[in-house]
Amino acid sequence: MRRRHVLPLGVVSLTAIVIAGVVGVSSYLTEREIDDHRTTVRRSAGEAAPAPVDIEAMQALPAPVLRYLSFAIPDPTTNYRVVSLTAEGEFRRPLTERFAPTTASQTIAVRTPALVFAATTPILSGVWARAYDFFADGKMEMRAKIASTLTVVDETTTDELNRTSLRRWLLESPLYPMALLPGGPVRWEAIDDGHARAIVSAFGLEAALVATFRPNGSLASFDAEQDGDLTTPYHGSGEHVTRDDYRPVAGMMIPHAFVIARSAGGSSYPFWKGRITSIAFE
To answer: pLDDT for 147-194, tens place per residue?
Structure first.
């Protein structure tokens, strides 16, 4: 009869302590990376002087855009530079179909394209992934680590990903509608009474989304005009977002419910759906 080899309890305990120590150190280093990126976003925000309100430029906006900005920012002289927010909901990891409960935070510069998004989502029971997207000064960085330790996504700056991150800042802009006022990095093109094209230009890059507006003036959705590549190991900005549940915050109307999706071939594939749980402007 073969004897089973059983590791001594002390060895098992020591192994668990070592693993916990490695995860703890890795988690600390990952959070320090994210905090450093938040500092960079705040620096970028501080360096971007807000443009003075141009009444003539406001009146020249496409009609649905003017209705939206009047709805979202009754006082266009509202002057904030940074927004910080948290959200919770369900997230679908790239190239998978199952959604999992997820929490996220963002720090975003209002007047210039810069942001950091960080999220935590479970992989298996007791195992989580920590991921972040960062964009500032025209360059992006994207990482995902299982248990904040094992890197499974590590994307660095390319023209395509930088442009995707620029679009991400535009896609999130209904959360900080001052970014969409004339004189900033976004310009508008008329389409019809319910739609307009928003184009953001910065760092030698350009990205565009088509906005759909509701009769009450609120922005219902943003959509890219090109199909996304659904085979990538990351979602990037997504090509579609819907916004709902507008609430007054700091003198503005800010949407608190969202669904962000990839889109291709005439179909939409949601990957992040949830609600804003806190939002603050500085």
So the answer is: 655 677 788 889 999 999 999 999 999 999 999 999 999 999 999 999
Give the up-direction half-sphere exposure of residue 142: CA atoms within 13 A in the CB hemisphere: 18
- pLDDT (tens digit, 9 = 90+) per residue, 193-234? 999 999 999 999 999 999 999 999 999 999 999 999 999 888
pTM over 0.85: yes
Euclidean distance between CA atoms 78 and 159, whole angstroms: 33
**Buried residues in 179-192 as b, exposed as e (16+ CB within 10 A):** bbbbebbbbbeeee
3-state secondary structure (DSSP) of residue 197 = strand
Gap between the Cα atoms of 85 and 227, Å rounded: 29
Q: How many residues does the chain have?
A: 282
Question: What burial class does residue 81 get, using C-beta atoms within 10 Å of its C-beta: 0-12 exposed, 13-18 middle, 19+ buried?
Answer: buried
CA 114/CA 168 separation, integer angstroms:
10
Three-state secondary structure call for residue 65: helix
* Residue 259 near residue 245 (C-beta atoms within 8 A): no
The stretches of the chain forming alpha helices (DSSP H) are 9-47, 55-59, 63-72, 159-171
Q: Which tokens sit at 177?
A: 């509608």
What does the alpha-carbon distance between residue 213 and residue 210 come to, in Å, rounded to a whole number?
10
Rounded to an integer, what distance in angstroms lies between the CA atom of residue 60 and that of residue 135?
Answer: 31
d(CA 263, CA 237): 11
> Do 169 and 203 contact (CB within 8 A), yes or no?
no
